[in-house]
Amino acid sequence: MSDRPPHEGPSDRAPDEIEPTLARARRAYELARLRRALVHALPSLALFVVLMLEGGARDTTGLVASLALYPTTVLALHLGQGAGAAALPALLFGLVPFVIVRVAESSGHVCLGEACVSWCLPACVIGGLAGGALVGARGRRERDRLGYALAAITLVVLEGAVGCRCAGHAGLAGIVLGTLAGTTVPWLAWRTPPVS
Amino acid sequence: MDPARRAALTASMRRLADGDRSAMPELVRAVTPPVRALCERMLGTSASPTADVSDVVQEVVIDLFRRAPDFDRDGDALAWALTIAAWHCRTERRRRGRARTSPLELEPAAPHVEAEDALDDRRLVTALEQACAGLSDKDREVLEAIVAGAPLDAALRKRKERMIVRLRRLLLGDAS
Q1: What is the pLDDT of residue A112?
Q2: Which residues of B touch A (CB under 8 A)?
């Protein structure tokens, strides 16, 4: 006959009775999370596919950035908590700078006399601001804000970078600075406790 | 499990499902006792060495953690855990039913024993009952003494040898 009532827990159970189970359970859990992340991150390959269909095989920056979306999304989903919560929304937010830059690219240049300016670089900054603002607004609901911010900003910048290749390195700098700046304004609202 | 601990268990499972690994040790400690209690009830005690039940409990806990990322955040963790535990216990019962080798267990066929095995068991029991019914009263007395483990004197040992010969003829005689 057991000395313990049936449903009373062994909160003081010897650690060596739990450790072997815990170690195997941990491995099973991490593998399950990884398998799930590998599947759920597949939509992040969409930009890469679009780029390839457009014949962008020679666009190294765009290819690298679009391919990097997948492992970054897998990592965020695998880690979970704030980063996991950021992954799929950030993929959508990142489409904003991507689309803005694409529209700007199709508009060509603005010429004043003999001076012509491409819309690409301003569009990268504006797109980054817009993407960052969405990241910041969504982040108010997160408890793990640091994990959320790191994952979301990284993904938005990578997606924006695919579009901002039209402005070269300046475009990359523009999307990074724009996203960071766009996140900063809602960040001031993050100083209040998260919405439960 | 009292409601407060049940709610705490569900909160821990939600945290784990979201990726908070720090919830693991407390979850293992909280979920193991009710799972063990269910497994001991479903797998029985007399025919089940304690080690077998512990193995099943461990497999259940590992399976729970494997499925944790898919846990329904609106669900109850204890009910979910016990459902998984019950599935593992039924699987273990089926496995034991297939591994069973002794034909002389006379309890009613359990549902998990395959129909063909159950039919063979009943045929064997019937054959034994018919053979025993063909024994004389004295032979049956000797058989009962043997089954009861009573010590046999020289006279009983002689009767035992003759009883075995007659029982063998009864069992094999119809077949020939």
Answers
A1: 65
A2: 1, 5, 16, 18-21, 24-25, 28-30, 32-34, 37, 58, 61-70
pLDDT in tens, B113-162: 556 666 666 667 677 777 777 788 778 777 777 766 667 778 888 888 88
Taking each helix axis from N to C terminus, what angle separates B115-133 and B154-173, rounded to the nearest 10 degrees? 130
Q: What distance in Å separates the CA atoms of residue A83 and residue A119, rounded to the nearest whole number?
A: 33
Reading phi first (left if > 0) and then psi (alpha if -120 to 50, else beta), residue A144 is in beta
B contacts of A196 (beta carbons < 8 Å): none
Q: What is the pLDDT of residue A7?
A: 43
Which DSSP string corresponds to A83-129? HHHHHHHHHHHTHHHHHHHHHHHHH-EEEETTEEEESHHHHHHHHHH
Measure CA of the first residue to CA of the last residue in chain A; give whole Å.
46
Q: Which residue of B has its CA nearest to A19?
A: B25
